[in-house]
């Protein structure tokens, strides 16, 4: 993407985001002046501008402590902002309809705006509170699939993705995650990318995180591929972390596991900040070189690439694809958007008998807003028969 297009995109985002914040600030002010008629508009405006600006301040080259503060505020505000603007717009559309149909008279408009605005704020508070609580839960999702290969009978695969270490509250559920994984007695654990969240240095306690990952008990070990948030200037520290954590990283390469199956790990096609000298390769010939009777399992962070593994007309390329990335939209109505964007944004999918099984997890943690609404953090347990 050219610099000009990047600038245009940024200006559009800033304009939409700024306009949305102005609209919310105005509607909240209309609520506050009822009980607080002497509210200082300058203080109110300054505070609102600061909160809205933290979304961009977190990207500046500032001390880590300030970046953490700005990221914390902006992460919560993104979730609150989303529901405030959706609900305020809905309320104002209903008010407009009431005025057009003369159901609402001008002399009652001020009170209706106040009470509808208050209802929006209270409803948003309830939704956000639920989302925060739900984001601290981890669901176990189980699938049973058949690959018609005797070597894989009763193979237990645990799939996780999107831990986003370094993001807000990303380390809170790690211990519970490891305990849940171990309780499932996995043969192998696969991490389908986005272990980190762009900047390794934002992890609050990397030593504890390393210790927890090392406690995962798996017959064949823990394997991972890189997601779009696993690159950038701290890629070396990320790799060191995985090595210390006994996580075997596969970069467009594969390993033969106990002579039972081949496990591939793909590089993400659109890394934020890049993967240094690593570039995503066409591995179709490499997959073809695996013995015909050897099942092929692929960790592919972004499920939009599943078409690359279609077997129809080109021979067997993969038997099972494990993906993440989508978070299943994370917060309603985001799940409706991801459902429209991806062939499969969550769950088990197989196009036809010639195509591989695909399993996409909604992720074991959140990205930015530490909330789950209409979706769940999950650990996926796959029994292959």
Task: Give a structural overview.
The chain has 385 residues and is α/β, with parallel strands linked by helices. The chain has helices at 3-32, 41-57, 64-100, 106-134, 174-183, 206-214, 235-244, 284-289, 334-341, and strands at 139-145, 155-160, 188-192, 222-225, 247-249, 253-257, 261-265, 296-299, 320-323, 347-349, 357-360, 378-384. The strands form two sheets. A six-stranded mixed beta sheet has the order 1-12-2-3-4-5. A six-stranded mixed beta sheet has the order 6-7-8-9-11-10, with no helix packed on it.
| Number of separate helices | 9
Global Rg: 24 Å
| Strand elements, count | 12
Structural class: alpha/beta
Strand line-up of the largest beta sheet: 1-12-2-3-4-5
Q: Characterize the overall form.
A: elongated
What does the main sheet amount to?
6 strands, mixed
Distance between the termini: 45 Å
How confident is the prediction overall: mean pLDDT? 93
Fraction in helix: 40-55%
Question: pLDDT under 50 segments (min length 5)?
Answer: none
The run of helices and strands is HHHHEEHEHEHEEEHEEHEEE
Q: Which strand-content bin applies to the residues? A: 5-15%
Oligomeric state of the chains present here: single chain
Show the helix and strand layout.
Blueprint: H1 3-32, H2 41-57, H3 64-100, H4 106-134, E1 139-145, E2 155-160, H5 174-183, E3 188-192, H6 206-214, E4 222-225, H7 235-244, E5 247-249, E6 253-257, E7 261-265, H8 284-289, E8 296-299, E9 320-323, H9 334-341, E10 347-349, E11 357-360, E12 378-384
Parallel strand pairs: 1-12, 2-3, 3-4, 4-5, 7-8, 8-9, 9-11
Antiparallel strand pairs: 2-12, 6-7, 10-11
Helix pairs in contact: 1-2, 1-3, 1-4, 2-3, 3-4
């Amino acid at each position: 993407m050219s610099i000009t297009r990047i600038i245009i995109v940024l200006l559009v985002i800033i304009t939409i985001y700024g306009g949305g914040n102005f609209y919310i600030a105005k509607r909240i002010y209309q609520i506050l002046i009822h009980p607080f008629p002497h509210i200082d508009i300058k203080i109110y405006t300054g505070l609102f501008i600061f909160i809205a600006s933290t979304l961009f301040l977190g990207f500046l080259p500032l001390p880590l402590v300030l970046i953490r503060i700005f990221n914390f505020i902006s992460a919560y505000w993104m979730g609150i902002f989303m529901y405030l603007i959706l609900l305020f717009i809905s309320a104002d559309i209903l008010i407009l309809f009431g005025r057009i149909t003369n159901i609402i008279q001008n002399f009652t408009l001020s009170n209706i705006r106040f009470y509808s605005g208050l209802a929006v704020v209270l409803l948003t508070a309830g939704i956000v509170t639920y989302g925060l609580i739900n984001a601290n839960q981890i669901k176990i999702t189980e699938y049973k699939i058949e690959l018609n290969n005797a070597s894989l009978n009763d193979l237990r695969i645990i799939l996780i993705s999107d831990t986003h270490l370094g993001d807000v509250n990303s380390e809170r559920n790690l211990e519970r995650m490891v305990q849940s994984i171990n309780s499932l007695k996995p043969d192998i654990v696969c991490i389908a990318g986005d272990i980190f969240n762009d900047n390794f240095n934002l992890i609050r306690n990397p030593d504890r995180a390393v210790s927890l990952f090392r406690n995962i008990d798996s017959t064949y070990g823990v394997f991972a591929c890189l997601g779009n948030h696993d690159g950038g200037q701290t890629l070396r520290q990320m790799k060191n972390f995985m090595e210390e954590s006994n996580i075997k990283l596969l970069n467009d390469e594969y390993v033969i596991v106990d002579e039972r199956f081949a496990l591939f790990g793909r590089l993400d096609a659109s890394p934020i900040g890049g993967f240094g000298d690593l570039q995503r390769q066409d591995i179709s010939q490499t997959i073809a070189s695996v013995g015909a009777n050897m099942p092929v399992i692929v960790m592919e962070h972004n499920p939009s690439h599943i078409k690359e593994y279609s077997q129809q007309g080109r021979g067997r390329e993969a038997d099972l694809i494990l993906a993440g990335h989508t978070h299943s939209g994370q917060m309603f109505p985001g799940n409706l958007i991801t459902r429209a964007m991806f062939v499969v944004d969550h769950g088990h999918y197989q196009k036809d008998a010639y195509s591989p099984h695909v399993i996409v997890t909604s992720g074991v943690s959140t990205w930015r807003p530490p909330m789950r609404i209409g979706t769940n953090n999950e650990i996926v347990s796959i029994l292959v028969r």
